[in-house]
Every structure is written in C-alpha cells, then in structure tokens.
Amino acid sequence: MAKQIVSANYLDRESSKKWLIRSEEQGIEGAQAFESVEATGVVFTASSADEEGFGCSMVAVCDTAVGSSQPSKREPKYGKRLRFDGFDFVDKKGDVVERCNCLVLNADGSMLTYD
Q: How far lies 87's CA from each of 53, 79, 90, in Å?
C-alpha cells in the first residue's frame, strides 16, 4: 500500500484547513486539505521539489493518514508537543524528532506525537 504524505497547507496558507494529505504516488495536485489529521507510522523527511517550490521544506511520510473536520479524540495531555523550527520538527526541549508512532495535527496548528 502506498504511503501517505502529510504537510502544512502550502497551497492556501489562509485556509482554515491547515493540513494536506496526498498519496505518495500522487503529485501535489492530488493533495486534499483538512482541518485536522491523525497519522501513524510517521517519518519526517525533506519535501519533494514540487512542494519546496511552495515554501514547504519538510513533510511527514506516513503508513496511514486520516483527515477530518473534527478534532482528534486523543487526550492532548498524553501527547508530546512538536514545533517546526524552520529546519526540523523539534520537541519542547529542542530535540529533533525524526519519527513517531502517531502524529496528531490540530485545526489550531498544534502538532502532537503519541507513542
């Protein structure tokens, strides 16, 4: 089964749908926008040349990714907050996070990992 590519919505940065999902087999024209995303089997990696042309330098390559208009049911207090520092995804201590079991992307732009 093809991996899923998840990124910030670089196609419309003003949209309330902050996240994009596309199949690894599709180009950026196949991306769909969502308010929230829950993904599993996540590895953070450099984006493709097409995405980088929109100012997107990193993406999440995922085993599964499901977009929704509803918030995640996962309890935020059990997650580890991530942020993008312009080069990498880092945790609150500033340590680079290269992969995670589960990634939750929220409508407010917040990012949480769960193991």
A: 16, 22, 9
* pTM, full prediction: 0.91
Provide the 3-class DSSP secondary structure of residue 78. Answer: helix
Rounded Cα distance between 39 and 80, Å, is 14
15, 22, 31, 78, 95 from 4: Cα distances, Å: 21, 6, 10, 25, 25
> pLDDT per residue over 64-94, tens digit each?
999 999 988 888 889 999 999 989 999 999 9
Written as six digits, the tokens of 7 are: 């990124």
Q: How far is CA 108 from the centre of its chain?
A: 13
The torsion angles phi and psi of 77, rounded to 5 degrees, stand at: -65, -15
